[in-house]
Design a protein that fits this description.
This protein is an alpha/beta fold and 295 residues long. The protein is built from 7 helices and 13 strands. The protein folds into 2 domains: 35 residues; 242 residues, Alkaline Phosphatase, subunit A (3-Layer(aba) Sandwich). An 8-stranded mixed sheet has the order 7-4-8-1-9-11-2-12. It has a 3-stranded mixed sheet with strand order 10-3-13. It has a two-stranded antiparallel ribbon with strand order 5-6. The longest helix has 32 residues. The termini are far apart.
């Protein structure tokens, strides 16, 4: 009987240990199930996204006309299979900012605040984060004019004005871009005018503008947990809408490349997750994060 009792105690002990292990594993699996893909992206202090215009990947990456962008590619990450959503320009701007085109199919000046849909700006503000846009040619902070600067400024490339849940006052002039980069918001977009974004002028013009206006920030970002993202709205309509997108800064593995197919919805989702947002606008909700380039 003593032997039998000993065996019983051993069985009960083994069962207890097994139960404990099962509980630990179960808790681990539960925790994993509740972990978003945000765990696979960094949490930079600042992200600056620059949007350029109407050029295909092959017109920029590897081009002698874009030495600065290619230096960012070499020192940062190159997303080799990044695609815009549609044509013409304006719907792509709305897609990258709000996860959808919001019914926009053309390139006209929109009614201010026509939409209340969720977007990157409204999500950041609701979460207590900071947001701003810096718009070259905008006559003054918060101005809602359709055009300015002799037609070089175009509201059609500034989707934040289409949303009533984004204060117009968060739209700054390019002259207001901080020289003290610690004052930058959590996420900001920079939109050059119609010449410097390569729409009306050459790739070389836009590349030089980028170096002159954002080069110092890029250098600073490399040692201050910050990111510079350079992307395009669309291609030249001749390359299946494949566009150049490079990412540069301290959280990026230098010289890294991703051949995963991404689009502006993936970029939006990544920006949201980097900022720790729990909501995702439009098609960003079902998009995956950009991965494989982070240190």
């Amino acid at each position: 009987m003593a032997v039998s009792a000993g065996k019983g105690r051993s069985r009960r002990m083994l069962l207890s240990v097994a139960s404990a292990i099962g509980l630990i594993v179960g808790l681990g699996l539960w925790a994993g199930a509740g972990t978003s893909s945000a765990a696979s992206v960094p949490s930079p202090s600042h992200v600056v996204v620059v949007v350029l215009e109407n050029h295909a990947y092959s017109q920029v990456i590897g081009s002698s006309s874009a030495p600065y962008i290619n230096s960012l590619k070499t020192g940062g990450a190159n997303l080799t299979q990044f695609y815009a959503e549609t044509h013409p320009s304006q719907p792509n701007y709305y897609a990258m900012f709000s996860g959808g085109t919001q019914g926009i199919t053309g390139d006209g000046c929109v009614t201010i605040g026509f939409s209340s849909a969720a977007n990157l700006g409204s999500e950041l503000i609701a979460a207590g984060k900071t947001w701003a846009s810096y718009n070259e040619g905008l006559p003054s902070q918060g101005s809602t004019v359709c055009t300015s600067s002799g037609g070089k400024y175009a509201q059609k490339h500034n989707p934040w004005f289409g949303f009533r849940n984004v204060p117009a006052s968060t739209a700054y002039t390019m002259a207001q871009f901080p020289t003290d980069y610690t004052r930058l918001p959590t996420v900001s977009f920079v939109v050059p005018d119609l010449c410097n974004d390569m729409h009306d002028c050459s790739v070389s013009t836009g590349d030089t503008w980028l170096k002159n206006k954002l080069g110092a920030y890029a250098t600073w970002a490399k040692s201050n947990n910050s990111l510079l993202v350079v992307t395009f709205d669309e291609d030249n309509r001749l390359s299946g809408n494949r566009i150049a997108t490079v990412v540069y800064g301290q959280p990026v593995v230098p010289g890294s490349t991703s051949a995963t197919t991404y689009n502006h919805y993936n970029l939006l989702r990544t920006l949201e997750d980097m900022a720790g947002l729990t909501s995702h606008a439009g098609n960003a909700a079902s998009a995956s994060d950009i991965t494989g380039i982070w240190s």
